[in-house]
Specification:
625 residues; alpha/beta; ABC_transp_unknown; globular; four-stranded mixed beta sheet; 20 strands; Gldg family protein; transmembrane
């Protein structure tokens, strides 16, 4: 008995199944090992990584595991957050694609009461309330370092996180992720220096604690205290140098600062026309010299093109803080609470801060011949007014005296700023070996015209909880300083990443149509109100005639009212016609966009492919011939 050979149909089925398996295998292999070049066609290059990010991703020393936590189910009724999650995920995937296998991305939905939810909380993510059915919404990133030969799912080492991706901070999304990668890649705490004539470090002998701002910095950085009296050179390994309330600095110390900045060092200068925490005596008994508790850096400021007067204080009655003096409450115009309108929302340092409190602060400006640029971080309102520091000192017992003769200057004074170079040396006469005469074009110094914002009294309370001290921050001063140092202590690649535009692009044509329609509605509304007023006036004129010609007056009133009602209906119809016309124009625009996206673009791509294939076929035939 002979075996029947497979039918033709069976062979075709087997061949089709084999082709499907081969196609899937090739697709997976190509997606895994072959890098397909991608083209970013967005107007602002939303999906193109900055050169600084590419450098950070390309120079990772060890593998990193990134875990993106997003509560998909809980956020099903939050379309804006879901759209932003896609934006974050696509940026992470682009970084992974450029990391040569050093980045491993995992996306987790931490459903309630799960191990994933516990892991998200344990890694410092901050949930958002208000999800579906009252669920909490997690949307953050956890980064963990891995051994070089780590297998998937293995335990990691150093862990850092982005607690929550706030859509309001989208312009700094790339910076925040790149900063996380940079810090994970670092093996030790960055070194920073501190020069201060204020008692920031406290006094252990008398039990005076260090200021909270220093304690916070010591958790994040390795802080080295420098004695200005012996300063002749600043170690180039210091990522940032904090100069707080510089007083009577020697030429050698100023020259050391000058060369540190020209060499690319990151300097943060805190000066003050009235440092209220300066505990030096007002009059030195040995020399008889009066100390006004002010500070300045005149030689360096002049070389950098900075104008600063250490005898002037900025008042701002619209931002005055409430203070208690005895049983009386005062608004102190020299103590300011700077809110959202006074903070630079386009800078990574101040974008997320809520309020920064300052006291008896000075201000900065640029000289007319300055070659540097001043980029404000903290400003006053236009209600500000400048007074001599002596007036502030005389009004200590009664701050209301500062409001006498107060006239707004209609100027927003700069209290803190980035100063960008190039900088020229303040010591051109020095010719020692290695002397730098000028900085690079991208050199930068941070200037702050107040030292009191560093003190605990302006931003943090210490309360006792179960016998342990607990800090309660009522302003963002500590975050402001930490953000400054954190921003400057990164690599030049990280500092080169600037804020970029958001993915939420407005429909400018639709907005223009809506604006035009609103204008039409406004005109119609004004016309209706005007006619209404005229009709009421006409009715009032008819009222006196009611006694003698009541029937006739009533008829006139009825005709007047009838005419008004008819006109009102006509205007209402015109309003509806304007709205219908607006909707029709928007619908037509939408149909046009859909037609272009669904029909025209695919047709163009298909036509291009056919032309390309035709040309290749034609060339092949010519070669054969």
């Amino acid at each position: 008995m002979s075996r029947r050979s497979p039918s033709r149909r069976s062979r075709l089925r087997l061949a089709l199944a084999a082709l499907i398996v081969l196609f899937v295998a090739l697709t997976l292999a190509l997606s895994r090992w072959v890098h397909v070049p991608r083209v970013d066609l967005t107007a602002d290059g939303l999906y193109t990584l900055s050169p600084g990010t590419v450098q950070i991703v390309g120079t990772l020393h060890r593998p990193l595991r990134l875990t993106l936590y997003f509560s998909d189910h809980a956020a099903r009724d939050l379309p804006q957050l879901r759209s932003y999650e896609q934006r974050v995920r696509e940026m992470l995937q682009e970084m992974v694609a450029r990391s040569s296998g050093k980045l491993r991305l995992q996306i987790v939905d931490p459903v309630p009461y799960s191990d994933d939810e516990a892991s998200a909380e344990g890694n410092g993510l901050t949930p958002l309330s208000g999800g579906s059915n009252g669920e909490r919404v997690f949307f953050g990133l956890v980064g963990t370092t891995l051994p070089a030969d780590a297998a998937p799912g293995s335990a990691g080492g150093k862990t850092l996180s982005v607690p929550f991706f706030d859509p309001a901070r989208e312009t700094f999304l790339e910076y925040d992720i790149a900063k996380l990668l940079y810090e994970l890649n670092e093996t030790s705490k960055p070194k920073i220096g501190l020069i201060s004539s204020l008692p920031i470090a406290g006094n252990p002998v008398i039990g005076e604690p260090a200021w909270t701002v220093l304690a916070q910095l010591q958790q994040l950085f390795s802080v080295q205290t420098i004695d200005p009296a012996t300063l002749k050179h600043v170690d180039g390994s210091l990522k940032v140098l904090l100069l707080v309330h510089p007083k009577h600095l020697s030429d050698d110390a100023q020259y050391a600062l000058d060369q540190y900045v020209l060499g690319g060092g990151h300097l943060v200068v805190f000066v003050d026309p009235d440092a209220e925490l300066d505990n030096a005596p007002f009059v030195d008994a040995s020399t008889g010299v009066t100390d006004d508790h002010n500070s300045d850096l005149p030689r360096l400021f002049k070389a950098w093109g900075v104008v600063y007067d250490d005898h002037k204080v900025v008042l701002d009655r619209s931002r005055a803080l409430k203070i208690e003096l005895g049983d009386t409450s005062f608004s102190h115009p020299a103590m300011l609470g700077l809110g959202a309108q006074e903070l630079n929302r386009n800078d990574a340092v101040t974008a997320s801060l809520q309020q920064v409190d300052v006291s008896s602060a000075g201000y900065f400006d640029l000289a007319q011949d300055a070659t540097t640029r001043l980029i404000p971080l903290l400003q006053t309102s236009a209600e500000a007014h400048v007074v001599p520091v002596q007036r502030v000192l005389e009004a200590n017992s009664d701050p209301s005296l500062l409001l006498r003769g107060y006239t707004p200057d209609n100027t927003r004074y700069v209290l803190a700023a980035r100063l960008r170079g190039p900088f020229a040396s303040a010591f051109p006469e020095r010719t020692s070996p290695g002397h730098l005469a000028e900085s690079a074009a991208n050199a930068e110094v941070i200037l702050v015209a107040d030292t009191d914002l560093l003190s605990d009294r302006l931003w943090v309370d210490t309360q006792s909880f179960l016998g342990q001290p607990m800090l309660n921050a009522f302003a963002s001063n500590g975050d402001f300083v930490a953000n400054l140092v954190d921003n400057l202590s990164g690599s030049s690649a990280l500092l080169s990443i600037r804020g970029r535009s958001t993915s939420q692009r407005p429909f400018t044509r639709v907005q223009a149509l809506q604006s035009a329609a609103d204008q039409k509605f406004l005109l119609k509304k004004q016309e209706l109100e005007r006619e209404l007023a005229e009709t009421r006036s006409r009715l009032d004129e008819l009222q006196p005639a009611r006694g003698s010609r009541e029937g006739q007056a009533s008829a006139e009133q009825k005709r007047e009212i009838e005419q008004f009602l008819q006109r009102k209906l006509a205007i209402s119809k015109e309003l509806r016609d304007v709205q219908h016309q607006l909707n029709a124009e928007i619908d037509a625009l939408g149909l046009k966009v859909k037609f272009i996206n669904i029909v025209v673009m695919p047709a163009l791509v298909t036509l291009f492919g056919l032309l390309y294939g035709w040309r290749r076929t034609r060339r092949s035939r010519r070669r054969r011939g």
